[in-house]
Design goal:
Elements: H1 8-15, E1 18-19, E2 22-24, E3 27-29, E4 34-37, E5 44-47, H2 52-55, H3 70-82, H4 90-102, H5 107-116, H6 123-133, E6 144-147, E7 153-159, E8 162-166, H7 174-184, E9 188-192, H8 200-211, H9 216-219, E10 221-224, H10 231-237, E11 245-249, H11 252-259, E12 267-271, E13 275-280, H12 288-303, E14 313-319, H13 322-336, H14 352-364, E15 369-372, E16 379-383, E17 395-401, E18 415-421, H15 424-436, E19 440-443, H16 461-465, E20 467-473
Helix pairs in contact: 3-8, 4-5, 4-8, 12-13
InterPro entries: CoA_reduct_LuxC
Catalytic activity: a long-chain fatty aldehyde + NADP(+) + CoA = a long-chain fatty acyl-CoA + NADPH + H(+)
EC number: 1.2.1.50
């Protein structure tokens, strides 16, 4: 593995242009040749020139991980996960320094995410993903014989794909899950890093290379940055002769940009933008103690990554007495401006156009009430119909309904997580919510908690990543 002697953080301070390195099949490529500006904060950074041939594994070459047992891959990932100790890992430390300049998340939250990153690479978590995605995990390691009810013989294999991953920018450690997924399906992987965090993926891959620079997992991974929509790069890479899947985490524009390249042999696995909500029954407003407890839990769900995460609640649909609901709104607002593990006391202030829209709502409708200010410390807007804008920066729209059943009509295929109270409401409504398009129901306060190995965005992604090959002797 090649390295560079210059400390990226020192270089950033000296030149005011942050150097972004690439990682290509076990080799660090020093940045500095091509300048870009980050989307969120407008910070200038410089990457290496991309050599497209280095990112493509010809189809005549078998994937490096093809004959590596899945047990060995998991053991390697677990060993790498044990190296993800922020206080001891210089690559994570440098990444944290640099992300703080390009990402809207506060430094403390970034460090908290890094400290919990190793939990994504435990043996139990990795095996849970395999066992819930594949009826017979042996198909990952070789050909699995089968016989149909006519006595015809065949065999199946989950063959390693060639994938481009468009990483999300709202969670610095999300790339670690993508790296693990790519390794578990034995893929050849190119990770397109986001402008808000072109650092963590390389930091993780450099950590893996220090464990074993020649390991097939390391040789199967590349992490680079280019500006989304750059046709010079995308018209070359986004071709079925080079890649099987484009795994896209991103906004609508990013997804639409990929779609134009799709065709036979090149498929999109999209984790497209989602909105999460909460649904609270009349039981919420029966006593001050319950109101306080639910307000705290709802604030936890709203505040995840300062409301940057897809699973962060933005709309809370409620039914009950108006006085109790207004008490809830006041207490919810007071709990939004609290320091948490994945949220800061103050998010970025609300944009001016949204401030104007909220003020106009109050002028036009006497029933609209607002608690808090648009200063990033928490704003609650109570209405009888959902607002038309997208609540952000710790802003939540509480919608008062005549009946909690009416909440179903506001659920669609873009609704990801629904936090609910009381918990029994999940069982009562989950079939109707699924029919409307929802993908996940949780207890209020549990949006960021997961049952290991579960689906994401209503699918088991590893199943969709692999190339299912059939050998039939009928």
């Amino acid at each position: 593995m090649t390295t560079t002697e210059t400390d990226p953080a020192t270089a950033a301070k000296a030149t005011e242009v942050i150097r972004v390195d690439h990682f290509v099949r076990g080799r660090v490529v020093p940045g500095g040749a091509v300048n870009y500006r980050s989307r969120d904060l407008g910070v200038e950074f410089a990457t290496p020139e991309i050599v497209l041939d280095e990112l493509v594994t010809p189809r005549r070459e078998l994937p490096p991980l093809l004959d590596v047992p899945i047990e060995e891959i998991i053991d390697f990932l677990v060993t790498c996960g044990e190296r993800l100790v922020l206080e001891e890992n210089v690559h994570l430390q440098r990444a944290a320094d640099l992300i703080a300049a390009t990402n809207p998340l506060p430094r403390r939250v970034i460090e908290n995410l890094f400290r919990s990153a190793r939990l994504r690479l435990t043996k139990r978590a990795l095996w849970s993903s395999i066992e819930t995605n594949f009826a017979d995990p042996a198909a990952l390691d070789g050909w699995v014989e089968r016989t149909d009810h006519h006595g015809q013989h065949g065999a199946l294999r989950a063959f390693p794909p060639r994938m481009i991953h468009m990483l999300a920018g709202n969670s610095p450690t999300g790339c670690i899950s993508s790296i693990a997924q790519g390794a578990l399906v034995k893929a050849v992987n190119v990770f397109k890093m986001p402008s808000s965090d072109p650092f963590t993926c390389v930091a993780m891959l450099r950590t893996m290379a220090e464990v074993d620079p020649d390991h097939p997992v390391v040789r199967s991974m590349s992490a680079v940055y280019w500006r989304g929509g750059d046709e010079r790069i995308e018209r070359t890479l986004y071709r079925p002769q080079f890649f099987d899947r484009i795994v896209a985490w991103g906004g609508g524009d990013a997804i639409n940009n990929v779609i134009k390249y799709l065709g036979p042999g090149l498929q999109l696995v999209s984790f497209d933008p989602k909105t999460s909500i909460s649904i609270l029954g009349p039981e919420t407003f029966t006593s001050d103690a319950v109101i306080d407890a639910v307000a705290e839990a709802a604030a936890v769900d709203v505040s995840v990554f300062n409301q940057e995460a897809c699973l962060a609640s933005r709309f809370i649909f409620v039914s009950g007495e108006r006085s109790g609901i207004e008490t809830f709104c006041a207490r919810l607002q007071s709990r939004l401006g609290v320091d948490r593990e994945t949220a800061s006391e103050t998010a970025h202030p609300l944009p001016g156009d949204l401030r104007d829209e909220i003020q106009m709502l109050q002028v036009l409708d006497d029933e609209v009430k607002v608690w808090g200010r648009p200063d990033g410390r928490g704003l609650v807007v109570l209405t009888s119909d959902p607002v038309e804008f997208h609540p952000s920066n710790k802003t939540v729209n509480v919608v008062h309904l005549d009946s909690i059943d009416q909440a179903v009509r506001f659920v669609n295929v873009a609704t990801q997580t629904i936090g609910m109270y009381p918990p029994e409401l999940k069982r009562a409504m989950r079939d109707r919510l699924a029919s409307a398009g929802a993908q996940r129901v949780v207890r209020i306060g549990g949006a960021a908690k997961h049952v290991e190995g579960g689906p994401h965005d209503a699918m088991f992604p590893l199943q969709r990543f692999v190339h299912w090959m059939s050998d039939e002797d009928a």
